[in-house]
Write a structure and sequence with these properties.
This protein has 544 residues and is α+β, with helices and mostly antiparallel strands. It has 19 helices and eleven strands. The protein has two domains: 262 residues, Butyryl-CoA Dehydrogenase, subunit A, domain 2 (Beta Barrel); 247 residues, Butyryl-CoA Dehydrogenase, subunit A, domain 3.
């Protein structure tokens, strides 16, 4: 019987109804490796909600209906507020409620940061843009600890599980969110070129700010960490959105950025003219004060990129499992299987490294863990975030034309994919930060050698890559021009070591033979042999 024109066949069903946590074996293995079964159990509800059709729909709506700047109210009063679609608030409420903001900093759970990292990686697959204010709120707390009194005022609200939007004074809120303003028009990443002035007031520790900020995400948040030039140099300040007497601080939102991706999130340009700010840390030590916030946001850049990779991989593996062409299922075609397996290896390595870094935060009192975190954060930020656009593009291609239409969700992922490599220091900034750590903090190299050395003798490709990296480090005359090559090699060796020690053998073998092999050209789908079927099956979500 001839099929009716309205009958649809050979289309993959939508990927909904799966648990985003428990169906990601790379993620669950990493959680069990660094935390406990109880930690994994505590993420089950988050994973189930992240895989619902509702979550998918809210993610699409939050990106379809962009935030809007409302500079004035109906009476002409300057209010500088941002209006969001209800789906944004739906996503934010659950992200905060699941403890993905600053909750780990006040938790007594020894694995609080691993739990939060796994949850952030999983929940961000619903929609990546709202992860920005969540990330900055998480990252603000360690910087605020430069002043115990200020930290005591803000940390309980930032660590709250209650999402309480709205521009109101701190005392009336059940929870708060934080933002950050570092860059200016003339400087970008070179924050020491900032020209915004901080003028002391009669109140001890309080200043007025006069200048601008070129790229401040989430201007609707309750408090911001801002850099400005005080009399004794670049200094960090805490800028409340609303003052304790209920009056609005002078923060003029000039416009919202029209960005390539991350369109659900409001990123803004600010003008500051008499804005009240409280000094955080000593004058002239602004970068040192805010560096802990930068480190925490860099971790979330890695986790966010790993999240994009996992969502793209899940969509690709799901599609090829349910789509047929040329006489059989796509997943059974050797070349397509090679491509998806290669994507799976990339995703597994990114997840393993991201969770390893979160474990280092949980164990920050250990000198090895602190040194490893210092060197591995810029390494991972450089490498994982740099790998994401190519990986997401390849995953999109697995869906063919279906992947190029907005309804698939893949264009959203692709637009988002370069973001984390740009924010919190671009590729060059992080590669040079690696050199800075190696030259000023020799314990960081020892930590890297110890970590990769734990897999010594287990894989010849890994052993050779580690030796080559050490040789490259010995050529001090060309380190700066080779900084990207060095950062990439060091990060890939870390990933290889983790997979060799803890990952499935088929994924570890494939990673080391390709990424650490002498002939690797960076093209996905060039794995040479191995049990690719097992790699793909491990990566494919299971819908109950």
């Amino acid at each position: 019987m001839q099929a009716h024109l309205r009958d649809v066949a050979n289309q993959s069903p939508p990927l909904v109804g799966h648990n985003v946590v428990t169906s990601d074996l790379a993620l669950t293995d990493a959680v069990l490796r660094h935390a406990s079964a109880d930690t994994l159990d505590s993420l089950t509800l988050l994973g189930a909600e992240a895989g619902t059709a509702d979550a998918r729909e809210h993610g699409m709506l939050a990106n379809r209906h962009h935030p809007e700047l409302v500079p004035y109210d109906r009476y002409g009063n300057r209010i500088d507020e941002v209006a969001f679609h209800p789906s944004w608030h739906w996503l934010m409420e659950r992200a905060v409620g699941h403890g993905l903001a600053a909750a780990p900093w006040t938790s007594e759970d020894p694995h609080a940061h691993v739990r939060r990292a796994a949850g952030f990686l999983a929940w961000s697959q619903t929609e990546p843009g709202h992860g920005c204010p969540i990330s900055m709120t998480y990252a603000a707390v360690p910087a605020l600890r430069a002043d115990a009194a200020i930290a005591g005022e803000w940390t309980p609200l930032l660590a709250s599980l209650r999402y309480d939007p709205g521009v109101r004074e701190r005392g009336s809120k059940l929870g708060a969110l934080a933002g950050m303003g570092m860059t200016e028009k003339q400087g970008g990443s070179d924050v020491r070129a900032n020209v915004t002035q901080a003028r002391p007031t009669a109140d001890e520790g309080w200043y007025t700010l006069h200048g601008h900020k070129w790229f401040t995400s989430a201007p609707m948040n309750d408090v911001f960490l801002v850099l400005a030039q005080a009399p004794d140099g670049l200094t960090c300040f805490v800028v409340p959105r609303v003052l304790d007497d209920g009056t609005r601080n002078r923060i003029d939102v000039v416009r919202l950025k029209d960005k390539l991706g991350n369109r659900s999130n409001a990123s803004s340009e600010l003008e500051l003219d008499g804005t009240l700010a409280q000094r955080l840390g000593e004058e002239g030590r602004g970068v040192r004060t805010i560096i802990e916030m930068v480190a925490a946001t860099r971790l979330d850049c890695v986790l966010g990129s790993a999240s994009l990779m996992r969502r793209a991989l899940a969509e690709a593996s799901w599609h090829v499992t349910h789509r047929s062409a040329f006489g059989g299922r796509l997943v059974d075609k050797p070349l397509m299987q090679n491509v998806v397996a290669d994507l799976a290896v990339e995703s597994e390595a990114a997840t393993a490294l991201g969770l390893r870094l979160a474990a280092a935060v949980d164990r920050s009192g250990d000198p090895h863990e602190a040194a490893l975190r210092r060197i591995a954060l810029p390494l991972a930020k450089f490498w994982v975030c740099k790998r994401t656009p190519a990986m997401v593009a390849e995953a999109l291609e697995c869906l063919g034309g279906n992947g190029y239409v907005e309804e698939s969700g893949m264009p959203l992922l692709f637009r988002e994919s370069p973001l984390n490599s740009v924010w919190e220091g671009s590729g060059n900034v992080n590669a040079l930060d690696v050199l800075r750590a190696l030259s000023r903090e020799p314990e960081t190299l020892e930590a890297w050698i110890t970590e990769v050395g734990a897999a010594r003798g287990e894989d010849p490709h890994l052993d050779r890559a580690v030796d080559d990296t050490l040789t490259l480090l010995g050529d001090v005359t060309s380190l700066e021009v080779s900084a990207r090559r060095l950062a990439g090699q060091m990060a890939a060796c870390l990933q290889g070591s983790l997979l060799v020690r803890f990952g499935p053998p088929e994924a570890a073998d494939a990673f080391c033979a390709s990424r650490l092999g002498a002939s690797y050209g960076g093209v996905f789908g060039t794995l040479a042999g191995g049990d690719l079927t097992a790699v793909v099956e491990r990566a494919t979500p299971v819908v109950a």
